[in-house]
């Protein structure tokens, strides 16, 4: 079966293992029926559509808030931490974001200049500071990005409990399969 370019066939075939790995070098599909292959392709295509939708939402959110993705992740962390009544130190934020303390200082300077966060004395450690999101930024994030992201809940809630368990198992398994830990990257040169 050759993809039909007129019907968007190449785009539709990008995640079809029959076209991305026609010789079966990467995936042994000898025991898979054509129906199984078609269904797996639909899953892969749906995952890509989800990733694309999330990337578009992240880009639109960043444009709206005039912030980059790391800034947006920092604000999300601060909102959840505030909801849990957990103070956030610069070190905790650096750890969550996986960035250096120097990068965290630059991030906080930028967010503070933009009126998105304030630095305050730590309630129990006189030597430390905590970071709080400003009420205005919190409200803007919740009403725009937060409201859009919350729609994920609706899609998950529409599933039956059994279907949710299947999806959870699939996504956890997929995350393990895609983990870069333990991968030995060959030198292409």
TrEMBL record:
Keywords: DNA-binding
UniProt xrefs under InterPro entries: ArsR-like_HTH, HTH_MarR-typ, MarR/SlyA-like, WH-like_DNA-bd_sf, WH_DNA-bd_sf
One GO BP: response to stress
Domain HTH marR-type residue range list: 40-176
Coiled coil (UniProt feature): none
Annotated GO MF terms: DNA binding; DNA-binding transcription factor activity
Keyword Iron: no
Species of provenance: Tessaracoccus bendigoensis DSM 12906
Protein name: DNA-binding transcriptional regulator, MarR family
Keyword Ion transport: no
PANTHER family tied to this protein: HTH-TYPE TRANSCRIPTIONAL REPRESSOR YETL, TRANSCRIPTIONAL REGULATOR, MARR FAMILY
């Amino acid at each position: 079966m050759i993809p039909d370019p007129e019907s968007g066939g190449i785009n539709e075939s990008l995640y079809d293992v029959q076209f991305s790995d026609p010789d079966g070098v990467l995936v042994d599909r000898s025991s898979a029926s054509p129906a199984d292959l078609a269904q797996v392709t639909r899953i892969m295509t749906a995952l890509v559509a989800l990733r694309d939708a999330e990337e578009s939402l992240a880009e639109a959110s960043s444009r709206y808030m005039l912030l980059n993705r790391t800034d947006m992740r920092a604000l999300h962390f601060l909102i959840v931490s505030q909801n849990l009544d957990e103070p956030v130190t610069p070190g905790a934020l650096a750890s969550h974001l996986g960035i250096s303390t120097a990068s965290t200082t630059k991030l906080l300077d930028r967010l503070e200049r933009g009126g998105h966060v304030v630095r305050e004395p730590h309630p129990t450690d006189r030597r430390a500071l905590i970071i709080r999101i400003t009420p205005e930024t919190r409200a803007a994030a919740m009403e725009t990005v937060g409201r859009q992201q919350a729609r994920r809940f609706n899609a998950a809630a529409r599933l039956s409990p059994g279907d949710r368990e299947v999806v959870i198992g699939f996504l956890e398994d997929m995350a393990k399969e895609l983990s870069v830990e333990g991968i030995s990257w060959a030198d292409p040169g």
